[in-house]
Amino acid sequence: MILQMFDMKRVSVNIVAVSIAVFLAFDNVIACSQENPDYLIESIVDELSDDEEVRFGDEDLELLSNKIKINNITDTEVLELPFLNLFQKNAIIAYRKEWGDIHSPMEIAMIDGFDRELAYKLAPRLDFSFKTKEYKYTPKQILTNAKYDFLLRVSANNNSGNDYDGDLHKVLAKLKYNLDDHLKMGLTFEKDAGECFFYVKNGSFRPEHVSGFVSWTGDKLSVLLGDYYVQFGQGLSMWNGTYFGGGIEVSSQLRIPKGIKPNTSSDETDYLRGVAVDLELKSLTLTAYVSYRDKDATVYVDEDTGGKYFRSLSKTGYHRNENERSKIGQVKEFIAGANVGYSFNSLMLSANINGLRYDIPRVSQSSFLSGSLNFVKILKYSYLYGEASMSVDKGFAAMAGWYIQPDSYLDIELLGRYSTNNYHNVSNSDVGDNTLSIRATMYPAKKLTVIVSVNSSNNSCFIFNVRSKFQMTRFASMYLDYRFSTKSSEHTFDDTKLPLNISESKHKFRLNIECMPYNFLTLRTRLEGVMLSGDVGCLMYNDIAFRFDSGISLLMRMTCFDTDGYDTRIYCYENDVLYSFSSPAYYGSGYAFYILLKLPLFRNVDFWCKIGDVENIDRNTNKLSATVQLRACF
User: Which pLDDT tens digit goes with each residue over 417-438?
Assistant: First the structure.
């Protein structure tokens, strides 16, 4: 097995040599990395996945995977675009208000903050079709004018375990209905590996997990029934789901609230269920929402009083055996809230209030109340943003940020966060530690970008990150990352048997080289390493990707890894089927590979298949996995 490991590493080194040779051989094709939607997802995951796996909702992946109708989306949706800064987003909004629809990349190049190169990099991500006309729909048009999207995904691996009641397949089925972006409906069924398709509760059969919604979006009024997300402010008071941000990039800390959005993901816990209404009155936006749903939890009985209580809600969504199914729907959760937003020129203000009540106490408290104030002020060369929130038990949290562009060669962002120990928000989302951070992006040369990030928090955590990006040729690019962090953690020693706080330092580096010698071929090599308290780890992978105009694509990756233990694990982004991705943690010694194929079967039917294998030589384990997905749009 050691010889096999050596051979794999030798193959990887050979691929690196071939990649560099290709870089030097071709100098006549424009790099198109930004055109690939996987590039956007991967760049976000790489920045966030340091000590844990990153998760996005399906609707976020859908935003990155599909073309964006730049003339159909609302101003709020323009602000949600993950690949532009706030100045560029507001420039698009102002341009559309003055001149109407945007017809081509050349027109984008004329907007303030854009140039010809950036406009053509964005062009493959945009749909320039005109705005949808208003209709008075007849029953026949409701059926025939709509777009239907059906997706079926089945995956399994040989390591799922066999002590569960259900089969080892993970199944996801989704059906979407869209009538000119006005009337939308969605239905999602999901079952994890080890779960049964149906379970018995109160004498009746129930499906494992079903989520659905119906929404109507008009000029002024929007109504949503079913399952949905609520995102307001900067996430201190009320925020369900994920957001794009949190990396080292300047301007990545500002959250753009989506307000009310339907839940189209397979997540089983982090969403609301009920009704939400959104009303726009010129510069004023009024939103109200009510939710009532069952939540999974372990319920305890107080020995003194005999009363019931629970400590925390279960967020895994797993119901694979009798013990896990005993937690289903043990707690009833009721949430009601409202938000008022005001927008005038370059100023955006909002106020949010939320109330929550459980039918049994959470430890000793059954109701929670919190409210917040949020602002964003756009100036000529900078913008300010922040939020302050207070809970009913006098807990307090606040954050403020300042983004500035003193000249075209420098971007700076300052951010501060503060919260008291007794602060609790209704959505149970993490507001983060008390933190002060600074980020700077510099452009010292035409083809060179340098990003520096420094974070310091009250829990003895310090992070320093520097990234340099270099466009070597018109078709080849590379970046080098270095990250230094210190973190205090508890350790118990045999002689004292008392936990002591020990500060640990971690060094991480990453070298990523990518080229596109032909329009259909992309080559990539990555080296990554980590050092922690004398332990080391390294990882290397090589990608070869083919993407043809016919819609056929094939990606192959070979990965080698060798770490001293779990503490030096390395998370690595992996491409996956549409609306999905993974970032597994590699530790120990071994190698992995996967093949991802997309194949158009018919005019509106696509097929995906991913087959992978992970060999851990030190643990003598092997994990085979396979995923197949079928998507039909008509």
Answer: 999 988 888 877 667 678 899 9
